[in-house]
Design goal:
heterodimer, A: about 525 residues, Aspartate Aminotransferase, domain 2, Aspartate Aminotransferase, domain 1, 3 domains, seven-stranded mixed β-sheet, globular, B: alpha/beta, four-stranded antiparallel β-sheet, 13 helices
Chain lengths: ~525, ~450
């Protein structure tokens, strides 16, 4: 990452260089296929070669083979290796993607997840022969419960959105068990899109709650909308504006006052580990994003995991199975999977959850320990406030003012509205120009209530120098735009492809290779 | 203890000066004192990397994995060989560490992988459109039924008892949220009972859910079941194991509307149940109701071919409460393993693998069913898994005896099917050789004989 980047005047080659290799770079695996080539060698047929029709009636047999590619192993490796080079990644550079917590992914975690005792353990193995895995899951549950300040944990949900769905379904089960039928769920207008989408899938109506001048929940609006039909308030604290809502105790009182549950979207947990706990704030249900605060690599869009922690009154409804610990015959603890949970909402997926993710997150928690987790949050907040201070300097702040001028938590929101007005470049243009400097852009156009928003989250694993340089790059792009806004408007110049026609992709969808 | 941070004392002082704060503590001033945690988290102290490694290694050593025994356990996840090149490619940080490809200019690798993956799933299932993957198999069944609800708004879902118990239970959990009821269709002779389906059908049926092969290993007559369901306008959902699709007629060619399934068998490790991926393919008419990410081909400003996430107006970050699903992510890395694995098998290899499984499974079924005290649970055609009965003995005890011999005998059907309390579900992959099958047969024969000799009257009833 440097503070200079290719200009449109310079030659603007694709990643490949010559036209021949550039074209080659974009072939699909299907376009590389040649009849008769192969990588796979089948194990020898060591049983009688019975005619297929004897074993499988002809009417069930496939008549046209799936048109999979035909390539050799070297060609297969080279193809995907080449594709990998057309990706930006966390080990390459700065990734200040707000709300996504793109912190370093420790390499130890891949090694321990790949141990055969983990990687080749069948999910239906008898629990007597999976005690190590169950103990790991138990330990992780206990740790997450302590971090959340809520005693009971289910690791089952596969992602944050899945944890949200679990939370709203738990709320439904809780109310129905009390003979109550509620119809509405409240979400702030700053909420992640998954919150309202989840509410709909769980069969409730979404009611939006406004935001006050300080970026917190509009408590008067909440009070007006909280009634006996409200099942739950879904909240992120710190919010998606990166601000801690100091009125949280009052909010909890209002929500609990009408018998609703308070749900914590854990996307922003990285700001508060060991400092304050959702359970102590009055939340009933919390989801964690193990791929955010707890270092599961994002994988280019999955896998993740979204465990939930809940209060005592929600516990009976947790998904099946639960990992439990009992006193064993030999005196030591024994771990089991408890399927006998009569009030449970049931299963949210197959088996026990994304165990490979649990291994990584558990390794992280054991590496950091109590002090380390707190320090991670402290430095995350320090880094965010430092970067915010740098971006409030002259030359930047007049174009990209902070949306809510307060001490932030682990992330903050700038508005590109003055930049658009004064310089004629949009937040999108700034984001695309950042690509030429080797930086992943922040989250853009979210949260929705800030015009031309940029949501910036540096995380604790970045150095001061990286933050300094990012601020320099932003200043350089703005200076450049003062002289010639076209540069940003047409950026990027240095990437394998440039701005893509998204409207065309949606209007005439080409979603697979024609074969 | 490591925090993977780099802020030195000097850095901290300089940064606080720039911020204009006296201390880091001051940055947390918005958090009311009463809500502060006034003690350290009650967690163990941090450890050095090598100490964490030793601890995790010790835990893993207490599991008996498919590395340690000869396993015939399947029932939804299978011990296939994962080729080395999958490990090599998945460990590249360019695939391992990026976020969802919201910035397509620097994500063409991942987006093209999605496009290639969608093509492979479309080919396997015989359906024109695939998304870029969902969480895993059973929740994909629930997502498919939600699509059916969006499509026709009808209140009832019929699910065959041959559908994986986890899928049926997940479906029931999710349907309670979106307001559908799930009813079960019985099995007859190991296959979904067509007459029972016809009797249950009506114009209030939103979806019919099948599984191919079904949980008992049976190759279902999907075409006949589908035709009956479609006569009343129900959406037909078929959950598939993708490996047998190399030799089985694809669901799309049999009229199925939505084909989903657990993708673990395609180049993914067992990992005690996850992460893996779920695949989700559908007919053209359901494209704009699909859940999840979809990659599409387009061009850039220089007319170069490229890929983007597309049809995003279906999705939660645009449509919010009107989205077709709340799902926010794919299982991109696991789906990459899937498409690399399918490329490794190739057009011929997938067929050869299916045929090998078919023949070894037939051999295993005959070998085991020839034993005194073993009966087939059904006579239906199977590809890679079959069900047995061990009448009159305690199946748990037999399975334990085999475990002591280093053989995992399979899945005890009594865990989820009370009507098959003496049932055992036996699965094969290409890793299970004839010699291992023979050894299994001998050990099972001995275990049954020993159990009959040892058993007091009444056990196993």
């Amino acid at each position: 990452m440097s503070a200079t980047a290719p200009r449109p005047a310079a030659s603007a080659p694709g990643a490949g260089g010559s036209a021949i290799s550039a074209a080659d770079d974009t072939l699909t695996i299907y376009e590389r296929s040649q009849p008769g080539r192969r990588a796979f060698v089948a194990p020898v047929l060591d049983v009688p070669e019975r005619p297929l029709d004897e074993l499988l009636p002809a009417r069930f047999q496939r008549t046209r083979a799936a048109q999979l590619p035909e390539v050799s192993e070297p060609e297969l490796i080279r193809h995907y290796h080449r594709l990998s080079k057309r990706n930006f990644d966390l080990d390459t550079g700065f990734y200040p993607l707000g709300s996504c917590t793109m912190k370093h992914n420790p390499k130890l975690h891949e090694r321990v997840a790949a141990l055969p005792g983990n990687a080749r353990l069948h999910p239906l193995q008898d629990v007597k022969r999976a005690q190590g895995a169950l103990e790991l899951m138990w330990n992780l549950q206990e740790s997450l419960g302590e971090i959340a300040g809520l005693p009971h944990v289910s690791l089952q949900p596969s992602a944050g959105s899945h944890g949200e769905l679990a939370g709203v379904l738990l709320t439904r089960a809780y109310h129905e068990d009390r003979g109550e039928h509620r119809t509405k769920v409240l979400t702030p207008d700053t909420a992640h899109g998954t919150n309202p989408a989840t509410v709909t899938m769980a069969g409730y109506e979404v009611v939006k709650v406004g935001t006050n001048a300080d970026g917190g929940v509009d408590v008067d609006d909440l009070r007006a909308k909280a009634d006996e039909q409200v099942a739950c308030l879904m909240l992120t604290n710190p919010s998606t504006l990166g601000l801690f809502d100091p009125n949280i105790a009052e909010i909890a009182e209002i929500v609990h006052g009408v018998g609703a549950t308070l749900y914590y979207d854990g996307a922003n947990l990285n700001a508060i580990m060991g400092i304050t706990r959702p359970g102590d704030m009055g939340f009933d249900i919390v989801h964690f994003n193990l791929h955010k605060s707890f270092t599961q690599p994002h994988g280019g869009g999955g896998p993740g995991a979204g465990p939930i922690a809940v209060s005592e009154r929600i516990e009976p409804y947790l998904p099946r199975p639960q990992v439990v610990r009992r006193d064993g015959a030999s005196g030591g603890p024994e771990f089991d999977l408890d399927e006998d949970r009569p009030k449970s909402i049931g299963k949210l997926r197959g088996f026990q959850g994304n165990y490979g993710v649990f291994v990584r997150s558990y390794a992280y928690i054991r590496s950091l320990g109590s002090e380390g987790l707190r320090e991670a949050s402290e430095v995350a907040v320090l880094n965010a406030n430092y970067l915010l201070a740098l971006l409030k300097r002259e030359g930047i702040a007049e174009y990209l003012p902070v949306a809510y001028d307060r001490v932030c938590m682990h992330e903050f929101v700038l508005s590109g509205a003055p930049m658009k007005r004064e310089l004629g470049i949009r937040t999108l243009d700034l984001a695309k120009r950042l690509l030429d400097f080797g930086v992943h852009p922040p989250t853009v156009y979210f949260p929705l209530l800030v015009d031309e928003a940029l949501l910036i989250e540096p995380t604790e694993t970045e150095t001061k120098e990286t933050l300094d340089r990012f601020a320099e790059i932003v200043a350089a792009i703005l200076r450049e735009a003062v002289d010639d806004p076209e540069i940003a408007r047409n950026a990027p110049y240095s990437t394998p492809v440039r701005r893509l026609d998204e409207a065309r992709a949606a209007k005439t969808p080409v979603l697979r290779q024609p074969l | 203890m490591s925090t993977y941070t780099s802020a030195t004392d000097a850095d901290r002082r300089a940064m606080l000066d720039e911020i204009g704060a006296m201390s880091i503590e001051q940055l947390f001033a918005d958090i009311p004192g009463a809500l502060r945690l006034d003690r350290p988290l009650a967690l163990p102290a941090g450890m050095a990397e090598q100490e964490v490694y030793e601890h995790l290694k010790e835990l893993a050593a207490r599991n008996v994995s498919a590395e340690d025994e000869v396993s015939f356990l399947g029932a939804g996840m299978y011990d296939h060989y994962v080729p080395s090149l999958v490990d090599t490619l998945l460990s590249r940080s360019e695939f391992l560490t990026p976020y969802t490809p919201y910035q397509p200019e620097i994500s063409q690798g991942g987006l093209q992988v999605m496009f290639e993956y969608q093509t492979a799933i479309s080919e396997l299932t015989g359906l024109p459109v695939s998304n870029a993957s969902v969480y895993e198999g059973p929740s994909a069944v629930g997502a498919a039924a939600y699509l059916a609800k969006l499509a026709n708004g009808r209140p009832r879902v019929l699910a065959s008892r041959g559908v994986h118990p986890h899928s049926r239970e997940t479906l029931t959990t999710l349907a309670r949220g979106y307001g559908q009821t799930v009813e079960e269709l019985p099995l007859a002779g190991g296959a979904t009972d067509l007459d029972a389906l016809v009797a249950a059908l009506g114009d209030d049926v939103s979806a019919v859910v099948l599984q191919q092969p079904n949980f008992l290993g049976t190759v279902e007559d999907v075409a006949a079941l589908t035709a009956a369901a479609k006569a009343v306008g129900a959406v037909v959902i078929c959950a598939c194991d993708p490996i047998p699709l190399g030799i089985l007629e694809p669901p799309g060619a049999q009229g199925v509307d939505i084909c989903v399934g657990e993708g673990q068998t395609l180049g993914n490790r067992l990992d005690y149940g996850g992460p893996s991926f779920g695949f989700f393919a559908a007919s053209q008419e359901h494209l704009r109701r699909m859940p999840g990410r979809i990659a599409g081909q387009t061009v850039d400003v220089d007319s170069k071919r490229g890929y983007v996430l597309t049809l995003q107006t279906r999705e939660q970050h645009i449509r919010r409460e009107k989205a077709t699903s709340n799902i926010c992510t794919a299982q991109a890395l696991n789906a990459l393993a899937g498409v690399v694995y399918l490329g490794w098998l190739g057009r011929q290899g997938l067929v050869e693998l299916g045929e090998l499984l078919l023949r070894r499974t037939a051999y295993a079924r005959e070998t085991l069913c020839a034993l005194d005290g073993v009966e087939p649970l059904h006579e239906q055609p199977v590809v890679r898994e079959f069900a047995l009965r061990l009448p009159g003995v305690d199946v748990d005890a037999v399975v334990e005896r085999l475990a002591a011999e280093g053989i995992n005998a399979g899945y005890r059907l009594g865990r989820t099917y009370p009507e098959y309390a003496d049932g055992l579900l036996v699965a094969l992959t290409e890793r299970r050789t004839r010699a291992q099958i023979d050894r299994f047969g001998e050990a099972l024969g001995s275990a049954l004989a020993a159990e009959r000799g040892a058993a007091p009257a009444g056990v196993g009833a």
